[in-house]
Amino acid sequence: MSALSFEDLNIWFGEGRDRVDAVKHATFEVARGESFGLVGESGSGKSTIMRALTGLVPHCSGRMAVNDQPLGRKRDKTFYKTVQMVFQDPYASLHPRQSVDQILSETLRLHGFRDIDPRIEKLLDDVGLGPAFRFRYPHQLSGGQRQRVAIARALAPEPSILLLDEPTSALDVSVQAEILNLLTDLRAEHDLTFLMVSHDLAVVAHMCERIAVMQAGEIVEVLSVEEMRAMTPSHPYTKQLLEASLGYSRSEVEAVV
Amino acid sequence: MTELLDVKNLWVRFPTRKGVFDAVRGVSFKLGRERLGIVGESGSGKSMTGRAILRLIRAPGEVEADYIKLDGEDLLSKSEADMRKIRGDRISMVMQDPKFSLNPVMTIGEQLMEAYRLHSKGGKAEARKRALEMLEAVSIRDPERVMRAYPHEVSGGMGQRIMIAMMLIPDPDLLIADEPTSALDVSVQGQVLEIMDKLVRDRGMGLIFISHDLNLVSQFCDRVLIMYAGRVVETCDADKLHEAKHPYTRGLLNSLPRFDAPQKRLEVLQRDPAWAEAESVGPDA
């Protein structure tokens, strides 16, 4: 049983001379309940795969399936009930003129829930915000609190799969720890499957069991977190990425110069 | 070690409806020809400290200090006209995001040449030569093409390197880099750091490196100031950052996921109001 599967996925932008192949022949599966990470430089196509899954790219070929149901051109309501996404920038992804209550109740209403009031309380409680936050506007919240609201909104339709696009890269390290802990707890409580994009290998290693490394639109390697921690990747690019992420080393730079 | 910059008891205040907000509270430090890191969370006053040195805090914000001495001269007593000569010429600043710091309607070449001609007497040809040299110095391939390009036509990493090139054209004594690599990929980050590192070594420039990335600062800088709520809570040698004693620094370090040591849960920082109350740690402590 796989929660998500991608087979020979190609995504491109533009046409003719200007055509850019953003993702080339991507094939991987995410098992139910698994947490899967996508890493690579900016422009390597990791976020584009997520956007393709949610139907936000103009052209793609290949097959994608959610819970073994193949996806067509259009996404239906069941899809959005199953798959939800948390975006990178909590300062940009919440409506500035809607209160937390409005943000959550709109999502709930769109998904056909009737008992909106108790559900909002439950959602806020789930993400560790008290009822006092319910009638606040985004500008009255800190970055970490906003990301909690964004997570609550994603959880509102009771999805089984969460897409996390750099969920903590706009946050301080101390707040990042809180959000990552929250995501870990929610995953255990709600039996969620995670597909996570990040450029921070330490974060991905903390959150994910398997990791796909992307370079220039291609998945160069899929490896387990143990292999990654042991620094035994088989592809040279993965090795390079791992070394770069371990930090700036003067001796290494001097050796190159 | 000769002191390049000596800051004593720096305060930055902003009047608000609810009273005066102190963004920086009594910060003192000295800087030689070295790499000094300033770390802290957002809102801890690290960027404000950098801006205050250049007197870039706009009214109604106020800067107050016993002195901010650059090579023995107090910057606070300078006229605005003199300050303009110091900015760029003696002290430069690299901002976080090249997208917002480069002029979108001027080509990169024009901007670089302007930076040169404002600070030295050379002619146009001289300016052009120097701009090309600097672009090469920050390892930009094909500088001729980049000179003709507009900021939106270059990538983030290139934009940041162009910013650094521009700041270095007048050959400053002190570079203040405010999160210069936060918007960049790890691989490009290494290149940008290497460029700055080389300049400190070769030209004897002083560098203030403002960042929220503790690991990066401990690897890259010589000395670190750790700021919390506008105060310096701890200062230490960068390579000893991991042995830091202050509970705030420890908390920050422990909240990072570790690549080499997996944990079930990350430690969450428990804040102690006493940290914000304690006096800033002085330059010699």
From TrEMBL, chain A:
InterPro entries reported for this sequence: AAA+_ATPase, ABC_transp_ATP-bind, ABC_transporter-like_ATP-bd, ABC_transporter-like_CS, P-loop_NTPase
Entry GO MF terms: ATP binding; ATP hydrolysis activity
CDD domains in the record: ABC_NikE_OppD_transporters
Segments traversing the membrane: none
Domain ABC transporter: 4-241
Keyword annotations from UniProtKB, A to Z: ATP-binding, Nucleotide-binding, Transport
UniProt GO BP: transmembrane transport
Stated family: Belongs to the ABC transporter superfamily.
Name listed for the protein in its UniProt record: ATP-binding cassette domain-containing protein
Origin species: Thalassovita mangrovi
Lineage: Bacteria, Pseudomonadati, Pseudomonadota, Alphaproteobacteria, Rhodobacterales
UniProtKB/TrEMBL annotation, chain B:
Domain ABC transporter: 5-254
Origin: domain of life: Bacteria
Key words of the record: ATP-binding, Cell membrane, Membrane, Nucleotide-binding, Transport
Protein's GO biological process: peptide transport; transmembrane transport
Membrane topology recorded in Swiss-Prot or TrEMBL: Peripheral membrane protein
InterPro entries xrefs: AAA+_ATPase, ABC_Ni/Peptide_Import, ABC_transporter-like_ATP-bd, Oligopep_ABC_C, P-loop_NTPase
Keyword Nucleotidyltransferase: no
Classification via SMART domains: AAA
UniProt cross-references to Pfam families, sorted A to Z: ABC_tran, oligo_HPY
Main location class: membrane
Keyword hit for Nucleotide-binding: yes
Protein name, entry field: ATP-binding cassette domain-containing protein
Species: Thalassovita mangrovi
Organism lineage string: Bacteria, Pseudomonadati, Pseudomonadota, Alphaproteobacteria, Rhodobacterales
